[in-house]
Each structure stands twice: as C-alpha cells, then as structure tokens.
Amino acid sequence: MPENTPDIRAGRLSAAQYAQNFADATPLMTASQAMMEAQRCLYCYDAPCQTACPTSIDVPSFIHRISDGNLRGAARTILESNPLGGICARVCPTEVLCEQVCVRTTQQGKAIEIGRLQRFAVDSLMASSAPQVFTRAASTGKRIAVVGAGPAGLACAHTLARLGHEVVIFEAKPKAGGLNEYGLATYKTPDDFAQKEIAWLLSIGGIRIEHGYTFNASALKTLQGSFDAVFMGIGLSKVAALNLPGEELSGVRNAVDFIAELRQSDPAQVPMGRRVVVIGGGMTAVDAAVQAKLLGAKVVHMAYRRGKEQMSASPAEQDWARTNGVVVHHWLAPMAIEGENGHVTAVRFAEQSSVNGVQQPTGREIRFEADMVFKAIGQKLDDAVLAGTGLTLKDGRIATTEDGATNLKGVWAGGDCRAGGLDLTVESVDHGKKSATAIHHALIGK
C-alpha cells in the first residue's frame, strides 16, 4: 500500500488481543491486599485526605472499617458523601487529590491507595445480596426536574430522592450516565459498570428518567411551570474547533465522538488508522490516544501546544499514555491538516517555546503523517441551547452561587456546565449534592 494511502480498518487484532487490551486497567484488590493496605493508614484526625476530596468522604473512617472487615459500613461511609463512589474510585485523579496529601507520602514515600480501597469497598457492596444501604424519607409532595443524567444530575436526583422528593430526570441520550457512560476509556469501566451503578442509584426509588429529551428555552419554561424546582446538569455538548485548514477532511474526528462510539461497540468492529495523531493535552486526549493504540494503530502521536506541566491530563495519565506506546509531544501548535482526495494524510505543527512566560514559535515546523486525526482540545457550552433562557453566563458557562443557584428563581445548575469548575466527575457529584440540599431547604423551609 502506498505510504499516503489511508489505511483505516477494523479487526486489526485477534479476539484475544482485544479482550486483553480492553480488560480492566486496574484490577480489583483481593481481600488480603485491601486488608494490608488499609492497615497502613494512620486514621489521621483532621485528615488532609478528607479535606482534599471534593465530596468530603471520611477517608480514615471508611479505611478503618475495611481493616475491621466491615465492608458494608465502609461502603456506606463512602456513598453517604458520594453516591457515585464506584465510578469515582475508577476515574478520579486521586494522585493529585486525596493521595497527594496523604501523610504516608512524606513518611514512607508511598501514599495509601485510597482510590483502590474505595473501589474495593463499593464493589463489595454492589456484589452483595442487599446492596441498597439507604431508605427514602417520607414523601414531601414536591417534584423536581433534573435536566441531564450525568454525574451532577444523578447525584442531585439521588440526594433529593433520599430526602423524600419525587424526581424526573430528562436526558437526551438513550442511556443515563453522561460522560461516565459515553466519555471514558473502555478499559476504565469495563463490564458495563456505569449502568450497574446507575441501577443501584435508581433502586432507592422516587427517580424516573425520560430519554430523548431536547432542552431549550421553551422547555425550561415548561419545566419551571410544571415542577417545584429545576436542576440543570446539561454538561458541555459542543466540541471546540481547531479552525484550521483541512479540518473538514475525512478521517478527522472529535475525540469525544470516537470514545463514545467505542464505549457502545465491540472494539473489534471499530475502524482504526495505522497512523494516528491526537491533538490535545487533557484526559480525553489520553483516552483517545491510548485506545487508538489498543485498537491496533502502529504509531500514535499526541501533540500539545504547551509544556508537560501545563497539560490538564494528570501525571499518571501522561505516564499511562507513554506506557501504552503513545508518543507524547509538547510545545507543538497545529498549523494545518493536509489531505489528498478528500482524506487526511498529515498534520503540520509549529514548534513553540516559552520566552519570559510568553508562548512563541521557534520557526521550526514538524509534520506527522496520519490516516486519522482526533481533536481533543476541549468542550464548551452550546450557546444555542441556552438562547432565550435568560440565564447569566460567566466565561461561557452558567454563573451560579456556591450552592448552584442561578439568576433564575427556582433554577439551579451544576457539573461541567457551571462556571468556575475543575471538570472532574467527583466535583460534578459535589455540585449535584449541594444543589439538592439547597433545593430541599428552599422547598421545605429549613
């Protein structure tokens, strides 16, 4: 095959290779491993790990329960603070949150594996004969609409249902979960875990999900008139454009679409190029790049326009990319996407450098040949969706108070669509919880 001919096809690997490549990237601890790791914990008073957790999980308490063999109690402690504790244990960047401040890091050079212990406890509960540990309060007679079944919306709905409210979640996609279902690498949540966790969350009762929902200004007015309160967890549905020549060529895709397709498909049926370029430096870029390699791409370049320290992908994610054979480049700004016969053939980059803190081109250009290009330069709120709603925006997202209240009476917002966030699943859960508490207080008056 000539070098400039696109080579994109499915089934590059054997069935055994696909199974191995997309198996659980971080296998569950054994009971003995969990017990030994839990016993390393000092159960600190005023623990820094709890402070560093966006959902304020009582980390020493749940680890202590594991060491005592009380896995149900450990899981309940986690889920009291984070009803999506299972998925967060799998995808949370614990190395820059709770584990980064672990006292054992300074004492022994190795933090307690808090994330893996959290997963061990929650998974043990989910696998038990009676996984539901919560009951609903008496009915309040209040009805709340939640727009979006992502982490923020689900956490808000669960918290409200526990308090006795009736909740209807309005979701655009066929499945609930948001990015937990459509936006994470397959090897992070295999065996359909996202849906299993959602089934557990819904089993408390009082929550109904309607799919195929279209949100706009008119829809918001209808919800305001039909429900006692509205929570918006609509996420970021619009993918940022490169605005480069050649962006419209065949073979150029949004990374989030590729990840979603792979999540809903048999990996052996997903076409993949032999030469792949991923543009971006976040966790979505890493997920796309690594999975391209796991699907059989011969070479995968991941290019970011700034330095390693400025990448939003955590250091662990960056190391994971390199471990899986991705070639990571820094200080490369995309200039143009080249093509022949309507299909991408290469990407040209301008090398950058930092001069007195200002990014400047060095004058050198670098070109990577490519059959496929994935754009992973971020997502943003779709302005068209919010047109006419009257919502106040800040930096392109919905402006709210600390508890998620918007400028519209009776309307709260949280998750990635809310201004000033970190775009983390665990933070979205915290937004949903706090807004639910605020909604409850507003409706019940205490």
Beta-strand share of residues: 15-25%
Radius of gyration (CA) equals 23 Å
Biggest sheet record? 5 strands, parallel
Distance between the termini: 71 Å
Helical fraction: 25-40%
**Helical run tally:** 17
The dominant shape is globular
Indicate the structural class.
alpha/beta
Strands of the widest sheet, in order across it, are 4-3-2-5-19
What does this structure look like?
Helix 2 packs across helix 4 (59-67) and helix 13 (255-263) packs across helix 14 (283-294). Strands 4-3-2-5-19 form a 5-stranded parallel β-sheet, sandwiched between helices. The protein is built from 17 helices and 19 strands. The N and C termini lie far apart (71 Å). With 446 residues, it is α/β, with parallel strands linked by helices. The protein has helices spanning 15-21, 31-38, 48-52, 59-67, 71-81, 85-91, 103-108, 114-126, 151-162, 179-182, 193-202, 217-226, 255-263, 283-294, 315-323, 383-386, 425-444, and strands at residues 8-9, 143-147, 166-171, 207-211, 229-232, 238-239, 252-254, 272-273, 275-279, 299-303, 327-329, 332-340, 343-355, 358-369, 372-375, 379-380, 393-394, 397-398, 411-413.
